[in-house]
Design brief:
The protein is mainly alpha-helical. It has helices at 3-14, 20-37, 55-66, 72-78, 82-94, 107-128, 134-144, 147-156, 172-190, 192-202, 221-231, 273-289, 308-314, 327-334; strands at residues 238-245, 253-260, 263-270. It is extended and about 85 Å long. Residues 46-191 form the RNase III domain.
Length: 335
């Protein structure tokens, strides 16, 4: 075969009729229209795939992906939602089969797991944020244990492919219950210490990169700062205008400093004097609580090895509330 004939063969092999491209575009257009009508592309459960041959193997693979050791029966229970048991019972009853199933659902495990997640989260937050009032601890706790946050964690570890439930795509509450049940199953199988590390690695790490001060909005930062300074025997805060720019314009900005006993504490900026005063008080509270923008990165993983005993100790020992907060008491509580 000469060179010219070889080129002709290759060109014929790569040639596509003119109707192929417009046909593919039309198919994609129709698929996009159908997806928009159905609220997105149709999602298929993993059990419909050819690889789904053995649920035991899937359970085993899930445990190894997490790097944890579970009791297989307990983990199965943790992944079985009440709706699945009810659906299977009704299906067997419809075909005349004895509808009593020896299958346990994850309701009890979910309750126990929810309590464990709450306890482990509080312990971590109180051990790391030693100077923070309990109100901010509770705000961070509520964020970490919220339905939306726990749903994200459950999806990321692949619970959606393993949960046995009647609804698909799975509802948010189903993800949350299953995750809580998995934590309880891990505590039963490998002990609370492994479950505590599991929660720290997957749930508490959702704080990474967040400004924790945005999770808590004190109603009266100026009044809170005044009360704290009074309890510490210091003079009431004095707010002074440091500088301003663009006065009487839509781009006005004021810088206000807060002082006590003629000592500078912090400064804040705002589009009005009142807002700048409030921001200065917030900055002062950040410094007292050690939650400034320049605070150290939160410890995770191996960095927690030396303070795990402290975390356990503080799980049931709340921080000082804002109404009683004082630096001396916080320091004595830390040491």
């Amino acid at each position: 075969m000469n060179e010219l004939s070889a080129i002709n063969v290759i060109s014929k092999r790569n040639f596509k009729p003119r109707w192929v491209a417009p046909t593919l575009r039309e198919i994609k257009r129709r698929k996009d229209v159908e997806d928009d009508r159905n609220g997105g592309p149709k999602i298929f459960h993993r059990s419909t795939f050819l690889e789904w041959l053995n649920y035991d193997a899937e359970i085993f693979a899930f445990s190894n992906r997490l790097g944890e050791k579970f009791n297989e029966a307990t983990l199965r229970t943790a992944l079985t939602h009440k709706s699945y048991v009810e659906r299977e019972t009704a299906r067997l009853s419809d075909i005349g089969v004895d509808s009593y199933l020896q299958i346990q659902n994850n309701e009890e495990l979910a309750v126990a797991g929810g309590a464990l997640i709450s306890k482990f989260t509080n312990g971590y937050l109180r051990a790391v944020f030693t100077r923070v009032p309990e109100e901010l601890i509770m705000a961070m706790h509520d964020f970490l244990t919220s339905t939306s946050n726990l749903e994200i964690v459950g999806k990321h570890i692949g619970l959606g492919d393993l949960m046995l439930c009647s609804d698909f795509p799975c509802e948010s509450e189903t993800y949350v219950k299953s995750l809580k049940a998995v934590v309880a199953a891990l505590a039963e199988s490998s002990g609370e210490e492994r479950a505590r590390i599991f929660v720290q690695d997957l749930v508490v790490t959702q704080l990474y990169g967040l400004d924790i001060n945005e999770l808590w909005n004190p109603a009266d930062p100026v009044g809170n700062l005044t009360d704290i300074l009074k309890r510490e025997g210091k003079a009431e805060p004095e707010f002074r205008l440091i500088k301003h720019s663009g006065q009487n314009s839509v781009l006005a900005v004021y810088y206000v400093g807060v002082y006590s006993d003629k000592n500078f504490i912090a400064e804040g900026a705002g589009e009005s004097l009142e807002i700048a005063k409030e921001m200065a008080a917030r900055e002062a509270l950040k410094q007292l609580f050690h939650t400034e923008d320049s605070m150290k990165a939160l410890p995770f993983g191996r960095q927690l090895k030396n303070i795990q005993s402290k975390i356990v100790q503080l799980e049931n020992q709340p921080n000082l509330p804002l109404s009683k907060w004082i630096s001396e008491k916080v320091t004595s509580a830390v040491h």
